[in-house]
C-alpha cells in the first residue's frame, strides 16, 4: 500500500484536529501539522510531502503567501495545495487559484469534501 504524507498548515489547533480526523479515514496517510506559514515552510524544507492543506488567515505568514512561495520554488511547486478558509468570496477563491492553489474549500469543514479532494489530488481510488 502506498503511503502519502500530508502537511496541514492551520493556526487553530481545533481546525487542525478536524482536518486530521477526516484524513485519518484514508489508509496510508501520514499527517504533519504546522501552526502558520513559516512553520509550514520549515517543515516543507525538512521533509517531503504529497499534499498541503493551508488556511489563509494565520499570524506570521498567511496561506496565500505560503502558496506563492511554494509555487515559486522548483523543489515544491509540484505539491498540490488546498486552501481551507472562511474566506468564501469569489475574488478570494480566484486569487488563491491564480497563485497556484490546487483547490479551495470553505469552512465549516465537511469531512467528505476533504476526503474527495484528497482522493482526487493523490489519485487514491
TrEMBL record:
Q: What is this protein identified as?
A: Response regulator
One annotated GO biological process: phosphorelay signal transduction system
Domain of life according to the entry: Bacteria
Q: Which SMART domains match?
A: REC
What are the record keywords, sorted?
Phosphoprotein
User: In this protein, which residues make up the domain named Response regulatory?
Assistant: 5-122
Write down which residues bear the modification named 4-aspartylphosphate: 55
Entry's InterPro entries?
Bact_response_regulator, CheY-like_superfamily, Sig_transdc_resp-reg_receiver
